[in-house]
Specification:
The chain is 44% helix and 13% strand. It has 15 helices and 8 strands. Strands 1-2-3-4-5-6-7-8 form an 8-stranded parallel barrel, surrounded by 5 helices. It is globular and about 45 Å long. The N terminus is likely disordered. The structure holds 1,3-dihydroxyacetonephosphate. 1,3-dihydroxyacetonephosphate binds next to strand 8.
Length: 289
């Protein structure tokens, strides 16, 4: 009955931290999370390359004001604006109920890498998360799994959580290759990590054919892939780590379909593109979690 005792342990200290796993907790705490199925739920907004500074400020303020009125239990809201707006966003986040994420980093602390942003710079601004391996970066910037693995390491080194994206393109799904594609992405991008480091990673399954198309994966397709990814994690690490890993769905997720996607047992929230650019719609998505 040791789990009764640990009810007095200040769980919130760990849950509210961006690096949110329970790696530093005593065994009793791990038992508690097992009993309560405490894996964190996340709704993250990927703004991509959108909004003027004034528009970004307005949107962030609207979301922050609304979040003040919402009780979020074991749920984190993460806003990932363009890099130039991160400092403004973290200023607002300081007094509000959301975290700030970046959309990209370069995997070195400093150096002659013109135009790039280092994890140290983000860390200094209190950034908690960073999207890694988005299909747009894989496609337009030729980012390979090997390079993404370095980005993952660079973030973890500075206590920030990678939101690691994976997902197949349409011809791959049509050829029934979606499981093998996602397996390669996850294995090559993440499975070099020791378990303690892996437990700080969030995964986002984003089928490329669903991104920005208005064609969402069905709840069955999302659940099937999320359960599959969780199985990969259990195979590589252990059941508890698999059960504790937050796996988000992304791809035309909106205020109409979020609730049924999030109701799936292995879908722990969403990585939202277009629908995160309007406060009302984004807030509806958050409250459907
Ligand atoms: P949409 O929600 O616009 O389809 O974009 C999803 C996405 O790419 C989030 O990273």
């Amino acid at each position: 009955m040791d789990w009764l005792v640990v009810n007095f342990f200040p769980v919130h200290r760990y849950i509210s931290s961006p690096v949110h796993r329970f790696t530093c907790l005593p065994d009793t705490q791990t038992n508690l999370t097992k009993y309560l199925n405490m894996r964190k739920k996340i709704v993250a907004g990927n703004w991509k390359m959108n909004k003027s500074f004034a528009e970004a400020e307005e949107l962030i303020t609207e979301i922050a004001d609304a979040l003040d009125e919402i009780e979020l239990t074991n749920t984190e809201v993460v806003l990932c604006p363009p890099a130039l707006y991160i400092e403004m966003a973290t200023d607002v986040a300081f007094e509000s109920n959301f975290k700030v994420g970046a959309q990209n980093i370069y995997p070195e602390d400093a150096g002659a890498f013109t135009g790039e942003i280092s994890p140290l710079m983000l860390k200094e601004l209190n950034v908690g998360y960073c999207i890694i391996g988005h299909s747009e970066r894989r496609k337009y910037f030729n980012e390979t799994n090997e390079f993404l693995a370095r980005k993952v390491d660079a973030l973890l080194k500075h206590d920030m959580c990678p939101i690691f994206c994976c997902g197949e393109v349409l011809p791959e799904r049509e050829a029934n290759q979606h499981f093998s594609v996602v397996t390669s992405q996850v294995v090559e991008g993440l499975f070099h990590l020791p378990v303690e480091a892996f437990r700080n990673v969030v995964i986002a399954y984003e089928p490329v054919w669903a991104i920005g198309t208005g064609v969402t994966a069905t709840k069955e397709q999302a659940q099937e892939m999320h359960a599959f990814i969780r199985g990969l994690i259990a195979g590589k690490y252990d059941e508890q780590t698999a059960s504790d890993t937050t796996i988000l769905y992304g791809g035309s997720c909106n205020d109409k379909n979020a609730a049924e996607l999030f109701a799936q047992p292995d879908v722990d929230g969403g990585l939202i593109g277009g629908a995160s650019l309007k406060s009302e719609e984004f807030l509806k998505i958050i409250t459907s979690l």
